[in-house]
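debug: dumping io for the single-chain case to check the tokenizer round-trip. Nothing else runs in this session.
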Amino acid sequence: MEEDGRLDEREAIRRLKHGEAVGLEVLVQNYQVRAVRTAYLITHDLQLAEDVVQDAFLGVYHSMRSFDSARPFGPWFLQGVVHAAVRAMKKTLKEVQLGDDGTEEEAFAQLTAQMESVESQVMSLENSQQIWDAMQKLSPRQRAVIVQRYFLEMSEKEMATELKAAPGTIKWLLNAARERLRVLLVDKGSKSE
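debug: decoded output
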């Protein structure tokens, strides 16, 4: 227990392993916003991202008894969210584009506003939009590795462990995704001049 009376993550996991829903409530409070952001960066569909995260938490509730408490929960859970978001994108078999009404763009802005200061939002708005537009042209798998590396700040070693892939494969995926982003951003920059 933490000093303010709330459960800490380890206690929440212990209780959830014993079937106490209060443990899940703590994990939802700790990870929901970050998980939705992660799924949204891959799916570019807020409703789909929320559905992916809800399913991920249900999966946690049903499978927590087999979770290895020696492992950190956050990376394990967010990796599951990434996989689920990629699967959801593959299932829909569509490339996601911004809608004409801008509601998806507004939803993304609201989510990212919690992470950035007002000053940095103003300074990075144009660059963020260009990067965001380019991200939507990546495949779901390429988006996933970019999100894992730069949004979730996972090391290549952590990514290789979580994906059960060779470090060389992770390096190749990241390089391919970065190169595709670079080409898209250069093309965008030359068109705007």
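debug: round-trip ok. The radius of gyration is 18 Å.
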